[in-house]
Every structure is written in structure tokens, then in C-alpha cells.
Design brief:
The termini are far apart. This protein is an alpha/beta fold and 339 residues long. The chain is built from eleven helices and 13 strands.
Amino acid sequence: MSKGKILVTGGCGYLGSHTIIDLLENGYEVVSVDNLSNADESALAGIAQITGTAVHNHVIDLADHNLTLRLFQEEQFTGVIHFAALKHVGESVHQPVRYYQNNLNSLLNVIEGMEATGCQQLIFSSSCSVYGNSEELPVTEKTARQEAESPYARTKQKGEDILFEYCRVHPDFKAILLRYFNPAGAHPSVLLGEASSNPASNLVPVITETAIGKRQEMTVFGSDYNTRDGSCIRDYIHIMDLARAHTQALDCLLENRQASNCEIFNLGTGAGVSVLEAIYAFEMISEQKLNYRLVDRRIGDVVSIYANYEKAEQELGWQPQYDIKDIMRTAWAWEKVRG
């Protein structure tokens, strides 16, 4: 028996597709919505191969108010996991208005659709970028947010603010805001992985694409930061650890176990890995040298960020099961399979 029908926005994307697998494997019925601006529906085939379940995707732009409301009226959802957003930091610097219009309007429309149909459980895809250049490391959920380093990061801060304010005046509405660190890796079956339709910008797929020859070389942005090797430090979390956290967060809401009706959780491993250390981890796993070049810093990049995830461990029962070596191993296997 289904535990409920869940709408996964951005369901054909990297985060959404892997989370759908975990939801299906834990008793939920899933409907996807994705406008395919940075994905295609091939991910649905991988989901079907892994789970034996065909998931329907509605090709809808959630920034379209009327289409979004119609979707909610046609389907009665138990809860929503909202991934859909433009996400490239560098692009957001050059196209801020596009990012504000898309990321904020889509969230507002989803909230309105939920309100109109009595759906009261929302998991929001936030980001560690809301912390900015934090003076406190590792960051906890109580760490003060600093000035956003990019329009993308600011849309995540504003999205959180919208939900805090909405929950304050709608006590029956329940939201969990998950602040991810850096998702990477692929499903262990190697039937699904990171495959955006736009050129990859995240570090791990850039590494694997360089290694397999899709790129002649890769660039490391900044080698003079105040870190142990001069490159930026991030907290890389395996995609299936991230996916599992969404199911556990949804369980928490539906079982009414959350401390308040708007809760924040960090999702990271607690271990900071520099860009150069990530490259070395890949070289060790793949047993090949990577062609990379050190260049100037990139606008919008935070120097160093990694998580304290104790709250997620204590209140959601979540712990990361994979490390940077597992991330590189599965990402490299996926890259070789998809060619």
C-alpha cells in the first residue's frame, strides 16, 4: 500500500531522479514535473530499470502560474519535494533577473498550488550557499547566513525566507528546508547518474569528462585561497545519501515528528575536501593522471564550506554512508558506461 502520492519537481534532473528511486523503494507513489530545460526524460528509463516502476513526467514550467495550479488541481498530492530551479552559480551572476524570476516564481506557484488543494507537506531544496563566506566552520543550522556570493545563492536565501514567513501564518503547513552541500556520484547500479543537458559545471562531472576525453583539460578556479592547498574547499555528499535524506525528511513530516512547522537540516559529510584533493582522489581511483590547469578565482565562489550534520542524524536518523572515494568510483563508472 502506498504511503502517499509525492510530487517531485525537477524529477528528471540529477537530484530529483535519484530521490525518486529512494521514494519508490520506500513505499511512496511518485509523479514528476520537469520542463526539461536542463534534463531529458532518459532518466525515467533508468528509474524504471532500477525500480520496475514507470514514473510519469509532466512537462510543465512551474514559473507558469496557470499551468502549475492546473497540475495541482488534476492530481491530489500528499506532499511535494521541490528541486526545480536554475542552479549554475556563474550563469546566475550574468543572468540575475532570469534566476530570480524562475526560482522564486516557481516556489511561489508551488506553494499556491499546495494551498489550493490542501497539500501541507513540503521539502525544499536549499543549499549550503545560503551561508556565504561563513566565519564558523563547520557550519550548523544555527550559523548565521552571510551575504550571498551569487544571485543563485540569494534565490535560495529568499526561498527560505518565503517559507519561514508562510509557515509562521499557516501553522498547519509543514516544511523542511534541506541545505545540501555538494552532491556527486551515481547510483551504484550505474544505470543512473549526473547527465545534465547543458555543459557540466559541477566539479565531479567535469573531472570525469576530462578523464574520458570529452574535455581536453579542466580548470581549477583559484590556487591562492587561504586553505591548506590554495584551492576552494567543499563538502561532497554522495547522491544516494542525499536522496535517502529526502525520504527520511518526508517520513518525519508525515509522522508529525518535526520540532516546528519549518525546520532546517544540513546535509553533508562533515569533511571538507579541496578541489585539488578531489582531483587526487579521482586519480587514485581511476589510476590515471588528469589534465588540469590552475587559473584565477571565479566570481561567486565561496572559499570554504562544510557541514555539521548532527541535527539530521539526531532528528531524521540520517547518516552519510559514502565518502569521496565512493563518489569518484561511482561517478567514473557512470561516465564510462554512458560514453
